Description:
The chain is built from 17 helices and eleven strands.
Amino acid sequence: xxxxxxxxxxxxxxxxxxxxxxxxxxxxxxxxxxxxxxxxxxxxxxxxxxxxxxxxxxxxxxxxxxxxxxxxxxxxxxxxxxxxxxxxxxxxxxxxxxxxxxxxxxxxxxxxxxxxxxxxxxxxxxxxxxxxxxxxxxxxxxxxxxxxxxxxxxxxxxxxxxxxxxxxxxxxxxxxxxxxxxxxxxxxxxxxxxxxxxxxxxxxxxxxxxxxxxxxxxxxxxxxxxxxxxxxxxxxxxxxxxxxxxxxxxxxxxxxxxxxxxxxxxxxxxxxxxxxxxxxxxxxxxxxxxxxxxxxxxxxxxxxxxxxxxxxxxxxxxxxxxxxxxxxxxxxxxxxxxxxxxxxxxxxxxxxxxxxxxxxxxxxxxxxxxxxxxxxxxxxxxxxxxxxxxxxxxxx
Length: 396
Ligand SMILES: NC(=O)c1ccc[n+]([C@@H]2O[C@H](COP(=O)([O-])OP(=O)(O)OC[C@H]3O[C@@H](n4cnc5c(N)ncnc54)[C@H](O)[C@@H]3O)[C@@H](O)[C@H]2O)c1
Ligand SMILES: [Zn+2]
């Protein structure tokens, strides 16, 4: 059959236009003691009814958690042994924290383990750790063999309520946050409240920033609930056991986050809007210029304070509402005063954020507690002045 790329008799050039859709979905479970003897949740995910093959498992463990809870490795080994699950060697203990996103050798070591331990596309990578390690493991799982099944078991507040419930992963490159990454939904997420017990104070607090964020843009009642329960949340921050208030704050934050991903119309972020990124344009810049000495959640709280001040200054938000936001941030004792504010270059931070997202500049501000609003222009001079005013902390 002769083939011509010229127009055919009806005036059309040949074209093949495939089109298909995929439905995505995954469970986010809430439990306590996931590796305990009586807890069958993980095995039910790995071996659903009717499954004939026992999948091979590569287990990745956050090094800081391993140090803080040395018996966890044995507990996990006993769990997998008891259920005859096919664990491919000892858990890989990897550095936790932003370091594992900065150093590509961590990613390479996961690829090596996938190759050396016979992990295939029907195997599972299970990652137990903070948001940073979960980001690296997510990228490794999305790219090795073009995709290995992934179960995330997040172990910080921020990872449980935000970083590991969504569809993204990321690594840092050339000093730029999340420069490398992909959109790849996990197979399941398991939030285990008990795994939060070993967290340091700053990581207990940092995770609450994402809950305040999502309440501010979406849910006034949730914000009011946090105001009313600030004392209980503070008890946890200062070392108390994670109780029902912490469980609720994680659950509600994750739920609002997932509502945006599943109902917001743009789960893989092809447009320019990023409603969940309130406070994040400056947060990412502050994290970078601090060389990651501040946590993501700490930076997000700083960024939210700045954008709340700005929202009030441009007449979007009332002074009373701004003061309530600042009041909650102060009640939870978030560190806001910092010399980093002097180094925040508003113009380049906004441009870097725009470039990362693509398209036009789109910044979420507030018109009320619980109501985010997107703007496409920022008064850089006013923003710069407000940022510098925060050097000595929230104005009294
Ligand atoms: N992919 C996404 O959609 C998404 C969303 C938000 C944030 N993030 C990323 O998540 C990261 C922040 O996550 P994070 O706040 O969990 O910080 P993190 O992963 O850096 O963890 C903070 C510290 O706690 C340690 N740790 C983890 N679990 C512990 C435990 N149970 N006990 C004691 N120490 C423990 C870690 O090793 C680290 O030192 C950032 O890199 C951020 O960019 C990703
Ligand atoms: Zn965030």
